[in-house]
Automatic annotation (TrEMBL):
The lineage of its organism: Bacteria, Pseudomonadati, Bacteroidota, Flavobacteriia, Flavobacteriales. Belongs to the heat shock protein 90 family. The gene is htpG. Coiled coil: none annotated. Keywords: ATP-binding, Chaperone, Cytoplasm, Nucleotide-binding, Stress response. It holds the Pfam family HATPase_c_3. One of its GO terms (molecular function) is ATP hydrolysis activity. Transmembrane segments: none annotated. Gene3D superfamilies: 3.30.230.80, 3.40.50.11260, Heat shock protein 90, C-terminal domain (1.20.120.790), Histidine kinase-like ATPase, C-terminal domain (3.30.565.10). This is Chaperone protein HtpG. ATP binds at E29, N33, D75, M80, S95, G96, T168, R334. InterPro entries: HATPase_C_sf (IPR036890), Heat_shock_protein_90_CS (IPR019805), HSP90_C (IPR037196), Hsp90_fam (IPR001404), Hsp90_N (IPR020575), Ribosomal_Su5_D2-typ_SF (IPR020568).
Length: 623
């Protein structure tokens, strides 16, 4: 058996240069250490180990000295003795916070806010510094203050120092490559990014304010510029907050967002893990851009990342807000999540809480749920497609509006249409439209039959339809313009053909010689004589596959572009084409009929279109 030896000469350069992916992290780490030092002192006061007066009103202060190229981080916390500096600073990867937590783990919940775990954060200071100094006075007044200094090599100096107030000051001598961290604007940017909600007040300079000194006089005074909110909304009990509190907090998180959130979910759990947070539902309509910077992940109020890929299910990346948990497993540099069983549990909990909230709104105020539907349907549909348990929870509250704007659940709509829209083979057919204007004439044809048409216009509709057909074997979905309505919902009734078999063969041959048969599949149908003579449709399965592939960014590779041409052989115009003796005129009739059918499929929208097409076919007959 042997022992692995790790020397400071070997490990120190690695820690300084490669432990953290971004050098700016040093400020977060040093302020986190200062926060822990202050929280330790607060805990000792609560435990009765020091008088409460000794705690005072502690804050952390950040100072810049451009003349000396130094950046200072000062706290009024527990401080360190000479022996403690030897233990916590000179021993790499020995965490003072972890040791403190272990010592007082059974005392109270006060220690929950401790941030440090690895004992490495202090050394991030050498990424931006030629030299680092520590001036520290322990809260134990019998021990003298100490001064520690190191230039980034394994050698250091440690000596007794004069310092009366307990606490620690870290002085960074910023190196030539890191002068940006001597700029106030840069430091303020980092404080707002990482420290905006830390639990101890952080002072960065001063600001002017007015003070009333008499009824008609005001005086301008300078006060501490505190950059953080130490008790953000997610750290409070939901019962203590009102709607305005949540709205204001949303504005703090997203100052450039103009619209208010629709509603929110306040997360608060202590077992089997500790997690708090607030998730906001923004107004989305049909936007499905997955942005991974809308939910912010914190650990004990310290910003970690805005990439919550593992901790929050992907469909909820459309939300905004904050999640805070000391139990989220992070890598050593606290820059990203590590895979862990607790991550799945947390993710499952968040999913359940979202489902609970949606069910609550639906049951308590359905009208309100319907008003919000257009803005939240993308989230619900995405969740139904990606999470089986979420699908089971929300399938009874997902809404399907008809083209008149009346909302139904799946069960409600099935009950409404099952008698009239069940075709001869026993399947209940869900007719749907993706665009009310473009598919107006087909919708009208369906309504004339007494059928109901639902509106599925989200980009996820093709995927959702597939999912629903898999889940409910006795139903099928067909877009209302995928075929003539009598072919979509086939009944037992038979319409007698006005053409003989020879006339059908003649018509088929005539059409194939004048129409691109590679693009159009010609189907001769015995339809009502009032139905248009030429109807161009896209087969439901082919169109659905096309839409799914296009949404996934794969285009139409492998799927042929083709249409059905439904020819109503009972229409008067067909008789006119067959009886026309002039071949040129016959060809013109076919071409004009095709042109009108193409217009009906692609160009004009709405009621004017159906009137125009109907009138045009009649004009062809008259001519």
């Amino acid at each position: 058996m042997g022992t692995i030896n790790v020397t400071a000469e070997n490990i120190f350069p690695i820690i300084k240069k490669f432990l953290y992916s971004d050098h700016e992290i040093f400020l977060r780490e040093l302020i986190s250490n200062a926060t822990d030092a202050t929280l330790k002192l607060r805990a000792l006061a609560e435990f009765g180990e020091i008088p409460i007066e000794q705690l005072g009103n502690p804050k952390i202060e950040i100072k810049i000295n451009k003349e000396k190229n130094t950046l200072h981080i000062l706290d009024q916390g527990i401080g360190m003795t000479e022996e403690e500096i030897e233990k916590y600073i000179n021993q790499i990867a020995f965490s003072g916070a972890s040791e403190f937590l272990n010592k007082y783990k059974n005392q109270t919940d006060t220690t929950h806010g401790m941030i440090g775990h690895f004992g490495l954060g202090f050394y991030s200071s050498f990424m931006v510094s030629d030299k680092v100094e520590i001036f520290s006075q322990s809260y134990k007044k019998e021990f003298p203050a100490v001064h520690w200094s190191c230039d980034g090599s394994p050698q250091f100096s440690l000596e007794i120092q004069d310092k009366k107030e307990h606490g620690t000051e870290i002085v960074l001598h910023i190196n030539e490559d890191s002068k940006e961290f001597l700029e106030e604007s840069r430091i303020l940017e980092l404080l707002n990014k990482y420290c905006k909600f830390m639990p101890i007040p952080i002072k960065f300079g001063e600001r002017e304010t007015t003070k009333k000194i008499s009824e008609d006089k005001e005086s301008t005074i300078k006060i501490d510029n505190i950059i953080n909110d130490t008790t953000p909304a997610w750290t409070k009990q939901p019962s203590t907050l009102v709607e305005d509190d949540y709205q204001k907090f949303y504005r703090v998180l997203y100052p450039s967002q103009f619209e208010d959130p629709l509603f929110w979910i306040h997360l608060n759990i202590d077992h089997p893990f500790h997690l708090t947070g607030i998730l906001f539902f923004p107004k989305l309509k049909n936007h499905i851009e997955i942005q991974k910077d809308k939910i912010q992940l914190y650990q004990n109020q310290v910003f970690v990342t805005d990439n919550v890929e593992n901790i929050v299910p992907e469909f909820l990346h459309l939300l905004r807000g904050v999640i805070d948990s000391p139990d989220i497993p992070l890598n050593v540099s606290r820059s990203y999540l590590q895979s862990d069983a607790s991550v799945k549990k947390i993710s499952g909990y968040i999913t359940r809480k979202v489902a609970d909230k949606l069910e609550s709104i639906f049951k308590n105020d359905r009208k309100d749920f319907e008003r919000k539907w257009e803005d939240i349907k993308i989230i619900i549909e995405y969740g139904m497609l990606s999470e089986a348990k979420f699908f089971d929870r929300v399938k009874k509250i997902a809404l399907y509006p008809n083209t008149e704007g009346i909302f139904y659940t799946f069960d409600e709509f099935t009950e409404k249409i099952k008698e009239i829209q069940t075709e001869k083979n026993g399947k209940c057919v869900y007719l749907y439209a993706s665009n009310k204007e473009a598919q107006h004439s087909s919708i009208q044809s369906a309504k004339e039959k007494g059928y109901e048409v639902i509106l599925l216009d989200s980009p996820l509709a093709p995927h959702l339809i597939q999912k629903l057909e898999e889940e409910y074997k006795d139903v099928s979905f067909s877009r209302v313009d995928s075929d003539h309505i009598d072919n979509i919902i086939k009944k037992e009734e038979n319409i007698i053909s006005k053409l003989s078999e020879n006339e059908k063969k003649e018509l088929k041959k005539l059409l194939e010689s004048n129409i691109d048969k590679h693009k159009f599949t010609i189907n001769l149908e015995n339809l009502n004589s009032k139905v248009s003579p030429f109807i161009i449709t896209i087969p439901e399965l082919m169109r659905r596959m096309k839409e799914i592939r296009q949404m996934s960014g794969r285009g139409m590779l492998g799927i042929p572009e083709g249409y059905n041409l439904v020819v109503n052989i009972n229409h008067e115009l067909i008789q006119r084409i067959l009886s026309e003796s002039d071949e040129v005129r016959k060809k013109q009739l076919i071409e004009k009929s095709m042109e009108l059918a193409l217009i009906s499929q692609n160009l004009l929208h709405g009621e004017r279109l159906s009137q125009f097409v109907s009138r045009s076919f009649n004009e062809l007959i008259e001519k």
